[in-house]
Write a structure and sequence with these properties.
The complex is a heterodimer of chains A (about 250) and B (about 375). By secondary structure, chain A is an alpha/beta fold. Helices cover about 35% and strands about 25% of the residues of chain A. Chain A has one domain: Rossmann fold (3-Layer(aba) Sandwich). In chain A, a hairpin with a 2-residue loop joins β9 and β10. The model of chain A has no long low-confidence stretch (mean pLDDT about 90). Chain B has one domain. Classes of the chains: A alpha/beta (about 250), B mainly alpha (about 375).
Chain lengths: ~250, ~375
Amino acid sequence: MLDVQDVSVRFGGIVALDGLSFTIDEGQICGLIGPNGAGKTTMFNVISRIYDATSGRVSFHGKDLLAAQAHGIARLGIARTFQNLALFPTMTLLENVMVGAHSQGRGGFMKSTFRIGTAKAERDLRDEAGDLLRSLQLDHLAFRPASGLPFGTLKRLEIARALAARPTFLLMDEPASGLTHGEVDELSETIRRVRDDFKLSVMLVEHHMAMVMGISDKVVAMEFGRKIAEGRPAEVQNNERVIAAYLGTSA
Amino acid sequence: MPTAIKESSPPHWLARILAVAVLAALALYIASSAKPSTLGNITEACTLAVAAVALNLLLGFNGQISIGHSTFAGLAAFTAGYSVNFWRWNPYVSLAVGLVLCFVLGLALGLPALRLKGPYLALVTLAVAFVWPTIAAKFLDKKVKASTLKGTKLQPPTWTGLTNSRPDRAVFLYWLAVVILVLAYVIVRNLRKSRIGRALVAVRDNETAAAVMGVNLKFTKTVTFGISAAIAGASGWLTAARLDRLDENSFTILNSIKYLLALFLGGAATLAGPIVGAFVYYFVDDYLKTHAPTWHWLPGPISKGPVASFLLGTIVIIFVFIAPFGLVGFIKDQVRRVFVVTPRPLKQAVASPELIEHTSDATAAESSAQD
């Protein structure tokens, strides 16, 4: 489904990604791990078209993803969440989710200005957004602005917003960071559940090893912009280079 | 505890209809009883309000600052003055053409806005506002500069029953300004409450996230700039309709600052804010200009004009501390203590039934605790 081939990203003289290749199959949960600065988020930003790759190819269901623009990937079926929350703080939770469905809607400037044939679509969208909030246990906060709510709640809101785009592929950047133990367990459950309910493939960057190893079908380990291991969680966990990258090697 | 009113319930509709009826009655009452000079003042306040509404769309909702909006008003005003006087165009056609020109210039100015943010964008638009009077002075000769829609150029249509006498003309211009203000308000309101409006606010709140959701940043930002410029152009056309002459100093940077002040006084990113702000600004300014004292207690007594400006500035500063979200934000807070409108409950969408089974017991417990 997703095929990353030999992708490199250079910022001036700094090599953030160096010939990275991996694939993700339909319905898989793929964990991307590696020490800080390994290039995990850079990879995410290349897939979501925030960064351009210096070289290499990324194809999604056979289509060249690097030819798409940042605002085009949602329509291709790719949605993401952000490491440090990128919500719309002044908008209500409901509106946040409704913006998430932007790629699904029609109604441009003309139709919106004169309100031609938009009423029904708006009502349906509102109810669907409500359903998503409900499925992530956020519906009781639907009309609250997003700013000032607890971190864990907002993380769930990001998932709801991403799902509103009806994606087939969901990228999650450190979904467990800043969550309590209990919340992390709940999150693993949520990720598995949305994968099954929405028939998604998921890629997540995560430092919480127990969680990544627990829910991933496949793990890709990175260091200094390169892939050092790829395979089932147990394989990667016991890989010498991965252990060395995390713990350092004895002199 | 404030009284809760359900959205779209009969009391809510009644309140809305009542509000519109009161405003309409007020507009009619003013038209029938106010002196021509007062009508002229209100027309001028409406003209300012139209420009503030335009700026609200751009700055309030989309987060793009412009100190160049006076330029758009000027462009539409001179377009009208020139085409009506020298090409004998119909004044309403001149309005339409002026709006299109402003839209195009707005798109063009929106392009640098894609790369620049905050103070940098402010600087670029400031430069435009600064250059405009010089261009106007250079390219327009005296005859052109003096041409507006005065006299017989823009007459009340016969179906209104108004003649072109001074009092009737004041009534006519007043209604023109009111109608254009209402249209500008409705356009911005419709936009805000639509898919596009959510996208505009999303871009303001977090550009990257908005793009990932599928919002085309370039298109959205430039078109918003264009629409806002066109609405500001309508304000300029009203100025050309009202004044007997225009010159290069009719649309300077000071006008742009006035639009900004009106917007923030009333409340940016609220629908009524720019209108309330424009009226308050205009009439406070007008009052101070005629009633401000001359200060003799300072060496070399300070005359009325500067004192009025000083007092106005002081009022604005104090105001920003008391009501940081503008007059409308302040009023909303007060009203919320008495009445709250509860949004329509969220219905289960039939489209995705697979979600329903997951409505967990925890949610049910939480929401019943809320009740």
